[in-house]
Amino acid sequence: MSASREAAQALLGHRFGRPALLDEALTHRSAIYGRAGRRRGERRGVGSNERLEFVGDRVLGLLMAEWLVERFPNEQEGELGIRLAHLVSRATIAGIAERAGLAAVLAVAPGEARAGVTSLTTVLADAIEALLGALYLDAGLEPARRFVRAAWAEDLERHLLPPKDPKMQLQEWLMARGCPLPQYREVSREGPPHAPHFRIHAEALGQAGEGEGTSKRLAERAAAAALLAKLGT
After folding, report:
1. Is-catalytic flag, 23?
2. Distance set, CA 165 to CA 35, 72, 204 (Å)
């Protein structure tokens, strides 16, 4: 793990005070299922990067929202939400992981490695988020902020013009290919009547995306943007 640890620290630009956090972030759940000495009754997945991915997902959302508000001061929630959905999508995060060569340093079970699990979008995206979670827990927000702004700069700067309405973009993309229109479903509605918060699920061609917003329209736009990223548009 030492070589992988060094490579990951170079990627993050940070030397860990608690290297066990970094090792955990680099460990796919498949690597621990057959581990010798595993305690009887221990839950599957304990010791893998799943818990750190949970933390990193929230840290990424916060830091990205902060950056977008700073970078695009004239855009409102709807436009910022579209940008956010794209930048934190699995496809975008996995692309960052691929450029960084992260697949080579992940710890996975031998059988899973031969099956190519480290090339899967979900595995790569989860690993990046786990590393971000480990970085935050080891050193706080500032090192995490530096990493996010360095790793995501290319993707953020690629789309400087205000984004198009993703619902219309998604509909046009599907219609051009003779595919059924997307289906939208309200997942949750929280908060008081004067300040509701919606979560919407969008689905098309066997892929799905979710979005949130302070109105159903904004949440649908964010969900469409997430779905477009999944479809590779």
Report:
1. no
2. 48, 17, 17
